Amino acid sequence: MTLEVRDLAIEIGGRRVVDGVSFDVADAARVGLIGESGSGKSLTALALLGLLPEDATAHGSIRWNGQELIGLPDRELAELRGDEIGIVFQEPRTALNPIRTVGNQIGESLRIHEGIGRRAARDRAVAEAARVHLPAPEQIVRRYPHQLSGGQRQRVAIAMALACRPRLLIADEPTTALDVTIQADILDLLRALVADDGMSLVFITHDLAVLSQVATHAVVLEEGRVVEQGPISTLLTAPSSPVTQGLLRDATATLWRPGGAR
Questions:
Q1: pLDDT tens digit string along 76-129?
Q2: pTM of the model
Q3: How far is the C-alpha of 239 from the C-alpha of 123, rounded, in Å?
Q4: Rama region for 66: left / alpha / beta (φ>0; ψ in -120 to 50; rest)
Q5: Which CATH number fits domain 1-84+168-262: 1.20.120.450, 3.40.720.10, 3.40.50.300, 1.20.120.530?
Q6: In Å, how far from its chain's centre is CA 238?
């Protein structure tokens, strides 16, 4: 399945904040959207699933496996979310429901999209918790988000996004709120899961060093416009735009690994 974005524009309160963004994500490709705060990368990601704020409007074209997503009714978009396209947000503390156990939250999309019962969903939740390397999965699925560490909450969010084995994963700065050691673990986990499932990945970040660990191609944004795109190896060795050159200078040295994404 392929994602095709053409001339995407997003307006909020009459102001255009994303303007003419175009890129493709082929089957099993790993593409990054990168830029500084306010560049439009997260809004672009939200537009892919119709999750823009109420006062925002999107124009242009977003096609998933040939189906136009802009203007698609919410009910049909909801059928895609979690089933064909999964999403992991930046801050799991706000993405997870504080009054429901993590097992119920992992199993929810399975019950919705696969129609399985409560007991089967719980068993699958345990298996998904184990898959993202959560300790003692039988016990941890009974816990609530506040009883977990930040890294464990993010693993729960990843398990939720991947439970139905989507063909595309959107990860919106999923390591920003974590310390450096846990960041590296989460990046390793995401890379392994994406490879194991053969899914496509859209990874949003402001950090070129982080992106080099999970993506092979990048789209660089500034003030809502694409200023450069190409293989990560090219952006690391011969960036053509001042924006990319600045991102390269600011790359997080502690996560730098020669060779880029594997």
A1: 998 888 889 999 988 777 788 999 999 999 999 889 888 889 899 999 999 999
A2: 0.89
A3: 48
A4: left
A5: 3.40.50.300
A6: 26
